[in-house]
Every structure is written in structure tokens, then in C-alpha cells.
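User: Could you check the structure of this?
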Amino acid sequence: MTAHLLIETGGPQTGPACERFLGDAARLARDGHQVVLFLVENGVTAAVPGTAPGIETFLGDGGELWVDSFSAAQRALPAADLTPRARLVEMDDVAAKLLEPRVRAVWH
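Assistant: Sure, the predicted C-alpha cells are below.
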């Protein structure tokens, strides 16, 4: 199966567009693909419990949630304020994922 790195920059404040993107991520994970959803810039706010219902669906379907540590810090979001299954990552983690064979990246 193909691995996917889906990158969300806008977060819940973009309205239905964010939830549609999260739905796509959940469908890929449910279909058996390895999916990492990386939240960066304002997208990190989607990792706050209750702000983006699609996150819990995505995680329940087997997806992995990464949150940019720099973006979270710039928005005063400590790890304790994020959904428990979120993993704070650095850009070198993202770069390594992008260089893995058969990884497809989609930026939203």
C-alpha cells in the first residue's frame, strides 16, 4: 500500500474545507493505507479536543497525527492541551517522512 503524508495548514477556522480534508485522511486510513496527518501553521488548532471532530474519526480509523512543535508553541498550545494521541514533531521528522519510498504528500 501507498503511504500518505497529508499536511493541513488552515485548521478548523477554514470551515468545511478542513473537515473534508480530514474525511479524506480517514478514508485512506480506513482503506488500509498508512496515513500521517501533519498539522502545521493554523492547522495545529485542529489537535485541540473538540475543535475538529474529524480528528477523532481519523485516529479511530488508524491514522497517525503529527503536530508541528514550532507552530504549536507560537500559538501557546502545549502538549497537554492537544488530543492525547497527537505527537509533537520537528521539521526533520517531516523531511524524513517525505524521503521515504512510496510516500505521497498532499498539502492543504
